[in-house]
Structure formats: structure tokens, C-alpha cells
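Running this now, will post back.
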Amino acid sequence: MLAGVFGKKIGMTQMFDTNGSILAITLVKIFYCQISQIKTIDTDGYNAIQLAYSEKEEGDINRPLAGHLKKSVNRIFQKFGEFKVSNPDLYKLEEGFSVDQLSVGQHVKVTGKSIGKGFTGNQKRHNFSRGPMTHGSKNHRLPGSIGAGSTPGRVYPGKKMAGQLGHKKITTKSEIFFVNEQENIIALKGAVPGPKGGKLKILMTS
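Update: finished.
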């Protein structure tokens, strides 16, 4: 039973559906994943499976990681991720998941880290409107008043102000539109978080 897989974002393109309409498509290269640990409520406090992915040479990983892999899988992997499951008894160590277990029409949740845009102002970060651009305004892109006067004499927590934009974990819903088993590539409808080459966690929802 496939809980999910991990992949790498290749980029975006366009494809036609059966009606001839153009769809925005994201191409994702799927990693071969193997179960490296099975977590249960008795041992870890929750039910989950740990997947190892992104294969490497044996000399490219440290000894603790190599020792963990020798107990569970028959290959060398560099990265790990978890999927919570309701019944861990359905899974076994060394069980592998790859692109051939994905099918067109499956609904998925895709999690990735959004593109970081650095320190930005209120107009870009929170979609604030700007001030007048006429001569003498002196308030073109300023934040405006941020306090509430003498009472309470402070700025409320959570006030929308300038700051770091992006570089956060984002989850979006999507659907598998196309599967290429030879190249280990799937096409997802719409956009998914992250830049080209970013790692994606793909959770099966149907």
C-alpha cells in the first residue's frame, strides 16, 4: 500500500487534455524509496513509516547513517522522510516504492519549501496599497501607523510588517496527469511549491 513518495521538481510546461484545453503542468522526477524504519505507537508514540531516498555511494555517508541503513535496507541512501500511516502492520522493511506504483488520476498533496524572496516590504509581502505618488507626498511605500496610541502603548503581536517572504513549507493539492515509467517522471496539474531542483514530498490521498 503506497503512502507516498519523494521527488525532485524539474520545472513547468504545458500539456493538452482530452478536450484540447491547455493545462499548466509541473514535471517531477520520482526517487526510488525504500522503507528504512517502521514506527509504532508502542515504540515511538505514533504510527509512521520512514522512507529512505536519494541513492549515494557508500563512502558518501557517515558511519551512523550507514549503520542505520544496514539494519533496514539493502542500498545506500542519503535522505529520509516520514509518512504517517493508520496501520503499520501493512508495511515491511526494505519494501520499495517507485514511479510504477503511481497512476494517472490519483489525487495527491505536494509539500515543498517555497522560493525565498528575501526581506520585502508590506506592498509585496502583504499586498498593501501604496500611498500617493504625487510630488510632496513623502508616503509612497511606507507602512503607516503601527501602534494604537498611548493605550496599550505597544505594537500588537502579529502585526503585518516588512520581513522575510517565502522559504516556508507549503502544501498544495494536485492530481497526476501523466506518468513516464521509463524516465521516472510524473506530470502534476498546476504549480507546486519550490524552485527547480527542489525536493518534494508527495502524499497519496486517493
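The CA atoms of residues 29 and 179 lie 10 Å apart. More later if anyone needs it.
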